[in-house]
Amino acid sequence: MLSLPTGPSALVRPTRPTTPQPTTASPSSSKIDLIRSFSPSKVFKNHTPDTPITSISYDIAGQYLLSSGTDETLQLYDVPKGRHLKSIYSKKYGCHLAIFSNTSHSKCLFASTKENHIIRFLDLNDNSFIRYFKGHSEQVTSLVNSTSGTRLESFYSSSLDGTVKCWDMRTDSFTASLGLSSTPLIALDPSNSVMAILETGSKTLRLVSMEKFPTGLIRSVDLTDPLGSTTPKKLEFTNDNKYIVINTDGDHLVLDSFSLQVTGLLTGQVPFTPRSYPDSGNLTVTPNGKIAIAGSGNGELLIWDLSMVSNGEKLTPTGRILPKMEAKVIPRMVLFNPQYEMLTTADTEVGFWVRTSN
Amino acid sequence: MPQKGVSVAAGKLAPSALEPIKALSRKVKDPRVPGNIGYEKGCAKTNHKKLSALLPVHYKYDTKHSVGPRPSGELIIWNFPPTTSMVIIKNNFAPFGDIKEVRGIDDPRTAVPLGMCTLSFDGDAGLAHESALKAISGTNGTLSIAGTVIKCGLNVDHKLYNEVHIRIVEEKKKKELLEQRESERRHALELRKEKEKRIAEARAQSMSRRKSERSQDNLAVQKTPNDGYSDDASLLHLSVHDRHILLYSSAELPPGYSKHIGNRPFIWIPDRYVSTRSVGSANIRRVVSRYNCDRILTHRNGFYIVFDKLDDAQTCFDNEDGRNIFEYKMYMTFYVPDDQLSKTRIGDKISPVGLSKTYLLNELKEYLLKDLREKVIGPKMLEIMDSEHYAEKMDAYKRLQEEHKEKEIKEQQAKLKEHEKIEIDEVNKLPIGLAPLSVRHQSADIASLASFRRRRDSNGKLHLGTKRPGKKNVLPMSHVLNDSEEEHDGDEDDEDDDDEDEPSEGMSSATSAEEDKKRKLFAQEDEGSLKKRKLKEDVVGLSTSSSDEEAKTVVSSQPTSPEEDEKMALEKAKSAYASVAERYRPTTERPNPVYEDNLEAKSYDLDWLQDVIKDDEDFQLAQEVSKHTLASPTIKDVRFWTWKLRNDQETEKRLQEESDKRQTEGLSDFLEEVSNNKELRNSTGCFRTSGCRKIPDKLKVDYLPYRRRITKPLTTIQDEDDNESATQSSGVHSSRVNRAISRRFAADISAQKQMLGSESDLLELNQLLKRQKPVQFARSAIHNWGLYALEPIAAKEMIIEYVGERIRQKVAEVREKRYLKSGIGSSYLFRVDENTVIDASKKGGIARFINHCCDPSCTAKIIKVDGKKRIVIYALRDVAANEELTYDYKFEREDNPEERIPCLCGAPNCKGYLN
Questions:
Q1: Which top CATH class is B233-350?
Q2: Taking the domain B1-209, which CATH number applies?
Q3: B34/A218 Cβ within 8 A
Q4: The complex's ipTM?
C-alpha cells in the first residue's frame, strides 16, 4: 500500500517513516488492522465457574476493571498489569452494573439484585458501604457516571420501574427523577449536556437537556421501524459526539446524535445463546469514536468502520477477529478501554484482549 | 409534548407533596454545537482519544491466566566451533538470566558435536521468554565464542531447531564427501611414496638401530623431571597436617580482626568443621587453655585462637588438630606471621628459599642421575654387551673362576682340617650324652651347618647341608635325606640340574661353570625385563601353578634307588658321627624352609616380588618361569620405572595413612558408647528396622551431649565475651563481705525512708532480691531444665529465693491433683511448714528449676523475713561459674516401688531414687 521510494535516492535521502495517509479506498484500514490484531491474552476465571457475568466497567483512567456476576461477587482487576486484584462479596444483596465512582477508583457503585433495588456505594478498600441510594423500586437497567469534570459526583440511573433518576454521591436521595411509561435506557453525551433516553417499550428515543433535566426535551424520535423486533440492550454516544449507537440483540443501530436520523445498521451479528440474566452490552466504540466493535454469538468480534455508515444503509462488518482455538472466550460483553490499547470481553469469564505482534 | 404517565419527582419529598411538574414539557434548544463536541473541563475530554494515543499493553506470560501458546524460553545457538565446551556458552549467556539447561547437539550418525546447542532459560514461561529475548538482542551476531561470531534465535515450536539442525547436518555431509574424495586421492599418493620409502628405510635401518636405542634412552630420561614437578605438595613431602600451616598474610581475616590479632600466630578453626553457633568459645578455650592462648575470637567464619608465642601455637596445632569436640572435629589451620615462618617446623620447606632449594636439589638430582645413566652406565653396558668381545671376556672369566675355585678348595681344606681337630677335641672334653638334642632343630647357627656341607665337598662321601646350596656342584640335602617326595618346594630345579651333573661332577666342573657364567650374563642383560615378566606372571597368578607342575614332573623322574642308597649312607653317617657331638651332626630330618614362602599377597607388586625371591636360586626359578613372557615396550628404562612405581606407592600409602588417622578418631567415640550399652544395641543390627521406641532418660545420659556427665561443668550458657568473664572470675566476694555491703545498703535505704517520712512503697526493699546471685536456667543433664550459676558463688552465700504462690496445705493438695490431671508432670510445690506450701507452678521464680542431687551444691533453708517464712537457696560449697545448682529435695521415703522416682543426678553417692 505504502510505496517507499526505491533506487539510489532512497539511500541518499533517508525518508522518515510517515504515518500512512488515508486513501480514498479505506479511510482507516490501518486502524481496522490494528483492532484486528487483537487477541485474547489473559482469561480470568475468578467468578464462580459457569456463572454468568452481568456487567463490566473500567474506571475513568482505564486502570481497573470491575466485573459483577450472578455469583454475587464483584471482581477487581488491574488492567495494565493483567492481574486479578480482589474479590468483593455481596452475597446478601447481589450485584449488577458495577461502576467505579468518578472520584476514586477505590469506590464503586452497584445495583442490588436481591431484597431491594438500592444502589450501593461501596469502598473497595475496606469492603464497607459508604452510602445507599434508595429510590428505585425495580431492577436498575443502566447506571452511568457523569461525563462532566465539574460534576464528578453526579450519576444517573434508569430502572425497570420506568424512572430515570439523577443522583449525587454525597446525598442519599436522588436529586431528580423522570417517570416514563416503560423501561428506559440512558446515555450521556460526552459534553454532559444531553441525555439520551430510550424507552424500550414504546421504542422512543428522546434527547433531554441536562440543564433543565426533567422538563427540557430537545428532540424525540420513534424507532419502532428500525429496531423492529430486536430488543435494545445499551445506548451509547460515540466519543466524538457524532453518533448514538444502540446495541441490540440483532442489528445495531447508528443514529446521528443531533438529528437522531438513522445513519446505519451494523449487521452481521449472530445471536448469542439466550440466558436469563441481563448484561452490559456487547457493542463498544473505540475512544476515538470511529470504530465499533461487537461480539457475536459465534465467538467472533465484528469490527465496523463508523465513517462508512451513510443514509441508513446496512453495513457489513469491515473486519472480524476470528475466535482462537486455544483461547475460547465468548464476547457476550465487550468493552474497549478508554485509555489503554486493550478491550475486555466477558461471559462467564473475563478475557483481556491486547494487540499481539506476530 | 407531554407524555402519558410521565411525572416528575424530586428529593425525599413524596411526589404528591410537590406540585406536579410536567416532565419533558418544555421544548428546548440543543445545547450542543454540531462539529464542536463542547467538552466540559475534566474527565470527559480525556475520553476522546486517538487510537494511536492509547497506551500500549503487554502482558507477561503467567501460567494461571494467560492463554495462547506458551512463549518459548529456548534459544538455538549455532555457528560456534564444535569443540566449544557447553560451559563456555553457558557462562556467556548467564548474564541474561538463569539458565536451566545447555544441551549440545551431536551428529545423529557419528555422535560428533555439531557446533550447535539449545539453551533454555529457567523460571516461569514469561520470565524465561523475556530473558531469551534479551539474550537474542544482546548476543545475536555480536558475541563471539572461540573466535567465531555465534548466531542464536528463539526456538518456537522446535521450528528453528529443525531448520538449523538440517542445515548443519547437510553442510557437514557435503564437507565430509569432499574430504573423503580428497583423502582417497591423498591415500593413493601416499601409498606410492611409502613404497619408495620402505626400500630406503630398509637400508638405513641397520645403521640407525643403535642410534635409536640411545635416543629412546634419552627420551625416558627427559620425561622424568616433568613427573617430579607435577605437584608441589608431593615435592615438599608435607603431610596433610603440615599443609595447613600457612602464612599470616595469606589469611582472609574478617574486617577488624587483624587489629585484635596483631602480628601474632593464630589458629583458625573454620565454621564448617566446628559450628560457632552450637559450640561456644568457652568450649574451645577449655581445650586450648593449656597452650597459653591469648584470646579466642569468634566470627561466623569460625574461631580464631590467638597466641602470643609461636611455640605455644605450634604445639597446640600439633596436638589438637583434628581433635573431637562434642560432635565436631576441630580441624585447624595455623597461620604464622610471615617473619616467624622460619622458626616453624616446616619453615625451611615452605619459605621461598626452602622451596627453591628443594626445587634445585630435585633438579640437580635428576640431572645427576641422567648424566650417570647416559655417560657412565650407558657406554659401559653397551661395551659389555658388545658381541665382539664376548669370546675374550668369557675366557677371562673362566680363567678367573677356575683360579678362584682352586683357591677356595685349598682354603677350605685347610680350614676343615683345623676345624676337625678342634671339634674332636671339644667332643672329647664333653661328657658323653650331654650334648643338647634341641640344638640341631633350632638351626640357629647356619654357618656351622654349612661347614658340614663343605666337608662333604672335600671328602666326596657325604651329602649333607642346608636347604640352600650355595653352588651348583653341591647337592641339596633334601635330595639325599628326603623320605617322601612331596616335600620339595623350591629346590626341584636344582635337583634336576644336580641329577644330571652328579655323575660327571668332577670332570665337567669347568663346563658347568661356563654355563653358570653364561646364565649370569644373561641374567645381567635381562635383569630388568625379567622383573617385569615375573611381575606380570605373578599378577596372573601363574607362578605358583607352573612351579608346582614342574615340581611334579621332577619328582616323578627321580629314581628310587638313590634314595635308598642315601638312607644307607645316612645310617652309615650316623654311626660314623657317633663320636661327634650331636650338635654338629648332620640332620636326618627333612630340611626346614629358611623362609616362609609368601606366595599369596594382597598385591602382586615389586615389593612382594622382591620379598619372594630370596636368593639366586629363587631368582633363577623366576627367570625360568618368565622365560617366555616379553618385556613391555612401554617401559623404556627399567630402573627408573621401578623407582617411580615404588615412589608412587609410598606416597599413596602415606596419604592413606594420614586420611585414615583423621577418620578413625571421629566416629569411634560415639560408636563405642552405643556398642557398650546393651539396651542401645539392636537385635537386627539396624535401628531403622526396629521401629520407634522410647529411649529412657537413663540411657540418653550416655550419649546426648547436653546430658553427658563430665567432670567439668558443662557450659550451657553462652557468654558473649569469654575474655571478660574470665577476668571477672577473681572477683568472688565472700558471703560475709557481701552481707555487710547489703546491710549497709539496707541501712541507707531505711535512713532515707525516715527522712522522707512517708509511707511510700517506693523504697520497700526486698532484701532477698538484693542478695540474689546471677543465675540462669538452661537444659540440664539431670532433668529437663536446671539452674546454672552465671558467675562463681562462694560457699554459704545466698543464691536465690524460691518464689511462688503461698498457699495452704489443703489448696496444695487440690492443686497437685489438678496439675497431675492436666499433665504437668513436674511438681513445683515446696512445703514451708505444716500449713504452708509455696507453689511455683504457675506463678513462680526460676528457683523452681533447681534439680535434685544426692551430692548437692546448695541447700534450701527456711528463714523468716519480716515475720514471714521464706525459702532461700544457699550455696553449700563454692560453686563455679556455669555449674548447675542442685539441692537435696529431701523427699519422704516411698515404699511403693512404682511411685519411686529414679534419680539421674549421676553423683558418686547417688541413692538411685529421689524418694
A1: alpha beta
A2: 3.30.70.330
A3: no
A4: 0.81
